[in-house]
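Dear colleague,

Thank you for sharing your sequence with our group. We've completed the structure prediction you requested, and as agreed, I am returning the results in plain text so they can be pasted directly into your records. Please verify that the sequence below matches your submission; if there's any discrepancy, let me know and we will rerun it promptly.
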Amino acid sequence: MRVKVLLELIGCRVELLHFALVDDAVLEQDFDLVAASHGVPTTVIKTLMEVFSQEHFMLLAPKAQRSDLLEHFSEVNRLLPNAVVIYPFFANKEISSLLEGVLELDSDNILQLPTVLLVDHCEERLAQIALNLKGAHIKTFTADNTVSAMDVIKEQNIDLLISDFTFTDGTGLELFNKLKTRLPNSRCLLYTSKPDQVSMVAAIRQGVEDVLIKPVDDNTLLQSVHKLWQTELLRRHNTELVERLQNTVDALIEKDSLLRVIFKHTPDAIILFERGGKVIETNDACEQLFEKPLKEFENCSVFEFFDVASTERIKDKIATLSKNRQFSCDLRLLKKNGSEVPLVGSFNEIDHHGEIALAVIFKNVTHLKEKEDLLVEAKDLLEEEVKARTAQLEHAKNVAEAANHSKSEFLANMSHELRTPMHSILSFARFGLDKVANDDLSKDKLNKYLSRIEQSGERLLSLLNNLLDLSKLDVGKFPFNPQKHNLSNIIKTSIDDVSGTALEKSIAIRPIGFEQGIVLECDEEQINQIMRNLIGNALKFSEPNSEIDISLAVNEQMAEIAVIDRGIGIPEQELEKIFAKFEQSSKTNSGAGGTGLGLAICREFVALHQGTISASNNEYGGATILVRLPLEIDLPQHLANEQQSISVN
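Please find the predicted structure tokens below.
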């Protein structure tokens, strides 16, 4: 019995059986420990050994004076040599430690035990009871009078008071009342040797759990403590459960209120209805969708709102609810004006006061149907789009093929550009030699021949210079010497350089915004060459007696130079292409001459200045070339770009 109480104190569930009741039903249970008394027959022990390992056995030895049982116990011990043996002289503390070791319990698995205050004026009895309680691992404080007991009460959280009913300076009942003043949830056990002289009923009424009769047996005391503490833990557990239940109820009420708000104000119409179709409840959105006041839904059937086909679909789905607890279907809502509204209904089976019902959410899919119609209309256009995509791919193929022939085209163009001025130089040189050989030294003819030779030589030299410049730019060895310069003066110099050509074609070059005096950090020679190329191109492709505007402005620390002509313009698809090397506009690559290197060189020079160059068509039908240059060059960035260019090359 003592082992049973100690097992219960450490939180174990104990089943006490006579050995004759051990049957198959008992053996099928999952026990963590089998404690066998010394009187259990060996046949029963052997049956238990077939199910449980020796590590799960504990043997209770008989007292030494019972020689008749010692022989039987020795036989059982031989069968279970690894079993833990508990002898009668073991103290409670020793037994508790053995139990915890066998069950491998840690502090988290051991039942929470009470903190006890033990008060008794008899020191010997006080020590004996305290030893018994501490042996059961119960934290125990002791006192032999009211004063010392109150000191403990003030400093410790006492769960249980165990006290003599009367002592020299007071009674256990008075001490319990003082304890309850500080700790209302504390409990009390009293013991007395004069049960006929104390009022047990009065003690019980004041909250005392039990009154024991001296002398107090160790097992009786432990059983009373266990019973009392189990009752207290159950009460605390019930209190906790009530609080948790109340919190759960509050949460459910709050959740129900939230769901009610959602149900009422959701923009989609929701109807709860019985399997037969009778409407149970609707939300506010139903009033607008079905054009019916909410009060009128009470006696309606959900089936009356839809066409025959929709109603049949709903009924067929409801008939299979045992297999599918939810389903969706397309519906047609009949309006009062005779029109139909396409809906999608999502149906779910619900429990309504113990009866099966359904909740449906209606989604208006009119806009989806409209999109479907648009898709049908777009179906015929799909083949055209495929054809257009095929054409794009064909175009990409043509572009790739054109790129493959670019080298051949360049060589052919270079051959023409080199042969033409060279042929002119040789031809006029031969004409001059023939005239000298025939003594026909007409000054006018010689001047004409030499002028033609000079023009062709300059054209050839310009071509070679462009090729050399481009080559230097490609390998990153073109000299770059940025300094502060007046941009207006550089552009004016460029205009002067091409003024002869402008005069020949009677083209007026108009500077705009030059009075600003913009100071630019740049390489003067490169900017001059950029402007000569741009103005030269504008003159080349402009009609006689027209105008060319050159505007100058500053925007966000960037100098903007625009060359605006009234020429033939550039096809939109070629606005970026004309800056590539050896490329010319399809409008200019025949008849006007040139190799397509001028704008490519301009782009490289602009890039050296960390700027941008772009082309567009203007309102006059001609082209506009826009150059944007930073007023100050980021020198570290320039050096990094230069180093990267050298590394690549």
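Summary note from our side: Residues 218-265 form the longest helix (48 residues).

Kind regards,
the structure core
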